[in-house]
Amino acid sequence: MSTSQAMQPAETKEKVPVATTPKDRFIELLDRFERMQNEVADRAFEFFRARGGEEGFGLTDWLMAENELLGPITVDVTMNETAVTVKAEMPEFEAKDIEIFVEPKRLTIRGHREVSEEKKEDERVMTERSTSEVFRRLPLPARVDPKSAVAKLDKGLLTLTITRIEMPEPTKVEIKVE
After folding, report:
1. Up-side HSE of residue 65: CA atoms within 13 Å toward CB?
2. What CA–CA distance (Å, rounded) separates 41 from 75?
3. Do the domain assignments include residue 142?
4. 133 falls within a domain
5. What separation in angstroms does the CA of 171 have from each of 88, 159, 174?
6. pTM of the prediction?
């Protein structure tokens, strides 16, 4: 059994808290974006240096760093008459590791997990630490009510259901001439 298999959390149905982006949470999120961007830039520079400073590969270095530091989240978005449903694959994440921000036309999912394992053999002690971070921001196909969002995590599959808000038909306004 590999270390990653041994460290997987028990697969249970968990409710995931959903935030509706109040100002302080938004500022916190922007700070995290800036930290992530700096980490990606530092790693991209390491790729550049490892190649001996050869120019012309900036985008490749950046994308390799993003791929290494920010894992992708595969999502499936469906919509019916009353709701938008988003299913996101979040293997090895627990509810406490995931943050969801819902806006009327946009969804942000962020996962951050740290694992620490200590092994002792005789007098030798070894500690392994690993971090996984995922991020996905996507437009929603319809206007939704952020406060209606309900999220569940079951066996690594995050399911988010959000009630649609119907927009009223535009009203034509006649101009009175005096």
Report:
1. 20
2. 26
3. yes
4. yes
5. 38, 36, 10
6. 0.57
Sheet harboring 75-79: ordered strands across?
14-16, 150-154, 157-163, 83-89, 75-79
CA pair distance 130, 156, nearest whole angstrom: 18
Q: Please give the tally of structural domains in the chain.
A: 1
**CATH code at position 83:** 2.60.40.790
φ, ψ at 19 (rounded to 5°):
-105, 150
Rg (CA), the chain: 22
pLDDT in tens, the chain (178 residues): 433 333 334 444 555 555 555 777 777 777 777 887 888 888 888 888 888 888 888 888 887 777 767 767 889 999 999 999 999 998 889 999 999 999 999 998 988 888 777 777 777 777 777 677 788 888 999 999 999 999 999 999 999 999 999 877 888 999 999 8
